[in-house]
Amino acid sequence: MSGDEEETFEHTLLVVREVSVYKIPPRPNSGGYKCGEWLQSDKIWSGRLRVISCGARCEIRMEDPNSGELFAACFINPGQREAAVESVLDSSRYFVLRIEDGRGKHAFIGLGFYERNEAFDFNVALSDHEKYVKREGDKEVGSNGTDGGGEQGHIDIHPAVNHKLKEGETIRINVKNKQPSSGTGMLSAAVKPKTLSLAPPPSSGVRFPLPPPPN
Length: 215
Known about the structure:
By secondary structure, the protein is an alpha+beta fold. The chain has a domain at 10-26 and 37-140: PH-domain like (Roll). It is 21% helix and 27% strand. It has helices spanning 3-7, 81-84, 116-147, 186-190, and strands spanning 11-23, 43-54, 57-63, 70-76, 85-87, 94-100, 106-113. Strands 4-3-2-1-7-6-5 form a 7-stranded antiparallel β-sheet. A hairpin with a 2-residue loop joins strand 2 (43-54) and strand 3. The longest helix is centred in the middle third of the chain and has 32 residues, at 116-147. It is elongated and about 145 Å long. This is NECAP PHear domain-containing protein. One of its GO terms (cellular component) is clathrin vesicle coat.
């Protein structure tokens, strides 16, 4: 698959059959938006809403349910959800979206769901997409940290062994008894076996008489 095909791959996260869109007044100087200020007379459109995952970007599309014609789209780039989607202060079913026309211009509109569970699913879909993007980012960072350095990514570090003697420790060397050699090596020169006085071994076949027992 080519890079262009990967970029245009889309996955639908949520479909809501009907939502309402409202024209909203400018943001107040303090605080956030309140849907009670524009619900009565500022409705400008109603139709289908789809939440689409396009790689790392999420799109909220408002479309005609019959023709599929796009009315408006809200683009959520990674880490910028709060700048694109904002909850109102006085209801859990209404939001303010930042929409774009694809030519650099943007505006803010009000979005309303008829059911509370639809608004809940909308929030869940956006959160799931954020988690997906984070997981993919963590995988990429882990892959670069493991394989990107070649052999450096597989270095095993072991603690150094201290071979120095501690205070009071000694070394014991077991040396097997050997016949003294005429060599002048370091061992023969440094270690000389002690001379022991031993009786000569008896000759083969010859027995020395034993002294008679005492009377």
